[in-house]
Write a structure and sequence with these properties.
This protein is an alpha/beta fold and about 600 residues long. The strands form four sheets. An eight-stranded parallel beta barrel has the order 2-3-4-5-6-9-11-12, surrounded by seven helices. A two-stranded antiparallel ribbon has the order 1-15. The longest helix is centred in the middle third of the chain and has 25 residues. The chain is globular and about 65 Å long. The two termini are about 40 Å apart. Bound molecules: beta-D-fucopyranose (FCB). The site of beta-D-fucopyranose (FCB) has 12 residues, from loops.
């Protein structure tokens, strides 16, 4: 669902139905689970969609500029966690609370920096390809970490500072980078023709199992101070209950190596791949997997806890379930919506079990989950039907998981009822943000919640049909997550862009949106760009290149892209500065700089 290319925007805008009755009445909604309580989906008698509006839905029809709208006068109450986060005493939290006072920024008046005033609405982002690189940037970039290549400072100037201890990271996943992960379900999936684009396989990937350290050095040279990597369950537990000390040692070596380079590891405990033996006994569809996952997590934390206390239990349960069990593009290749929802429920239960297991072993641990969020806006904001299916899609994709994790309640489409063990199972929430979709009602698309996806007319599209360039979605997603009352890490954000003609603009624009959110005191603790080095992009194989550093998987030769230098300069400045914008993304100047 997430990675599918949307068709061009060919929907005729609809107006609100003049029918005088609920136009959903005659739709077959029988498959929608009935719910109890205030969040209910009722097939008969009531508007089936009325009560599932996410708390922050505005429906203003002006979502493009939503970033620059002041917060609504009557903001919905914060969904605060019912106990203080274990992070409350951490230095990071002190750090973020400092942001509540305006940070002096060159080129801005103190008024424009106050936490209640926000910069004026900029013109829309450019739709054209960027101007060619200015001559100050050599076509063959020097090694990362060498002297800056910034242009002469232009006036007026601004510096968008980040908090002093802000984490600037890169994100990876074991199967995508390690190579030769022959014991998991993905390896098997790759062997069947038609599963991976162009018949690609992960092969050696980025050769991290042998030599992750070479890329750790590159990350350190860039100034990166945080790195998200995952532990491959099938290496650690190649047979049920049999743990491999050599594999655990190798991971210990990696996280220790990161620490030695001044890089804080964030360890993900499940990132899409599962041991073959687990897949054969039902994988995440089987409730027994919850306990088995907790047992694996225990081994990992006991071994690696010395070097890591920042844990991401599970990556993107929604993507995992939709891609593997609804769309059938990932293993096990099913098209069974109910099975997909069971998978999400089990994964969330697995998350909660892991949360408690980790805290039992490491009371000061910071444990969260990486949630993929997409923005779903109605294609025609004046159409009741478009608005409703956009909300429904948002509920199914974004909100249901958040509600389960914070309130301990299953909502559509996950089911109904309470699941108390999920409550209080997050110390932080991870945001994986990439793009947005416009959603239109489609009476025939019952399998897709009666929706058809497309892009804004004239919008800049990302390479490979990856979606729309929509940096405002970063701010909107953070704003929404901030209501959970938890620290936020942007655990992924990036684009496939082999020729690196969009990435610099994507990076600056998204980081600028994040900066804006921090100015409003939203507790964003760090940013992990996806990704450091081109890696095996699941069903897309090697056709999508997300790396700051280009990789030829056949030769293992690496070459930093211009974006690597750009990101390095942002990290070193701990800011977006005017010279950086002028050098790398001059086309953004009118959109993010004053004057
Ligand atoms: C995310 C996945 C990550 C990578 C990026 C591009 O959904 O978590 O592994 O595939 O997309």
């Amino acid at each position: 669902m997430v990675k599918k290319t949307s068709s061009p925007n060919d929907k005729t805008p609809q107006e609100d139905s003049p029918l005088g009755h609920d136009p959903f009445d005659d739709l077959d909604l029988n498959w929608i689970e009935q719910e109890e309580g205030d969040i209910s989906i009722e097939v008969l008698g009531h508007d089936p969609f009325e009560d599932i509006t996410p708390a922050d839905w505005r429906g203003s029809g002006n979502e493009d500029n939503a970033l620059y709208l002041p917060l609504p006068a009557e903001a919905p109450p914060l969904e605060l966690a019912d106990r203080p986060s274990p992070l409350a005493d951490s230095p990071d939290v002190t750090l973020l609370s400092q942001v509540t006072t305006p940070i002096p920024v060159e080129g801005f008046t103190s008024e424009s920096l106050s936490s209640t005033s926000v910069p004026p609405s900029p013109p829309p982002f450019p739709l054209q390809a960027p101007a060619p690189a200015p001559p100050t940037v050599p076509s063959r970039p020097p090694a990362i970490g060498t002297a800056p290549t910034v242009a002469t400072v232009a006036k007026p100037a601004a510096t968008f500072h980040f908090p002093v201890d802000f984490k600037w990271g890169v994100a990876t996943a074991a199967h995508q980078v390690e190579g030769e992960n022959i014991l998991n379900d993905w390896w098997d999936w790759e062997q069947t023709s038609g599963h991976i684009k162009q018949g690609h396989t992960s092969g050696l990937a980025c050769n991290w199992w042998e030599n992750a350290e070479a890329d750790f050095d590159r990350a350190a040279d860039m100034g990166v101070n945080a790195l998200r990597l995952s532990v491959e369950w099938s290496r650690v537990e190649p047979r049920p209950g049999a743990f491999d000390p050599a594999a655990l040692d190798r991971y210990r070596e990696m996280v220790q190596g990161l620490r030695q380079r001044g890089i804080e590891p964030m360890l993900t405990l499940h990132h899409f791949s599962s041991p073959r033996w687990l897949a054969e006994q039902g994988g995440w569809e089987a409730p027994e997997t919850v306990g088995l996952f907790a047992r694996f997590v225990k081994q990992v934390v006991e071994t690696l806890g010395e070097y890591c206390d920042l844990w991401c239990t599970i990556n993107e349960p929604n993507v995992y379930a939709y891609m593997g069990y609804v769309e059938g593009i990932f293993p096990p290749g099913k098209a069974d919506f109910r099975a997909g929802m069971a998978v999400i429920r089990n994964m969330l239960a697995g998350h909660a079990a892991a949360y408690r297991q980790i805290h039992a072993l490491q009371p000061h641990a910071r444990v969260g989950l990486a949630h993929n969020m997409r923005i779903f806006d109605p294609l025609n904001p004046r159409s009741l039907l478009d608005r409703r299916v956009a909300r429904l899609t948002d509920q199914a994709y974004n909100q249901a998981i958040l509600t389960a994790l914070t309130r301990g309640r299953w909502q559509f489409p996950l089911g109904f009822g309470w699941v108390r063990k999920l409550r209080r199972s997050l110390d932080w929430i991870g945001l994986n943000y990439y793009t947005r979709d416009l959603v239109a009602f489609d009476r025939h698309a019952s399998q897709a919640l009666y929706s058809q996806r497309s892009h804004a007319e004239g919008a800049e599209l990302l390479d490979g049909g990856y979606g729309e360039f929509y940096p405002q979605g970063m701010f909107r997603s953070i704003e929404r997550l901030a209501r959970l009352g938890l620290p936020i890490y942007v655990t992924e954000n990036g684009i496939p862009d082999a020729d690196d003609d969009q990435r610099p603009r994507y990076l600056v624009a998204h980081i600028h949106q994040m900066w804006h959110a921090i100015q409003l005191c939203y507790p964003v603790m760090g940013y992990y760009h996806w990704t450091l080095v081109d890696n095996f992009e699941w069903a897309e194989g090697w056709t999508m290149r997300f790396g700051l550093i280009e990789l030829d998987p056949a030769t293992q030769v690496r070459r930093p892209r211009r974006s690597a230098h750009l990101y390095s300069e942002i990290i070193r400045a701990n800011a977006i500065t005017t010279p950086i914008v002028d050098t790398y993304t001059p086309e953004l100047r009118p959109h993010i700089l004053p004057g």
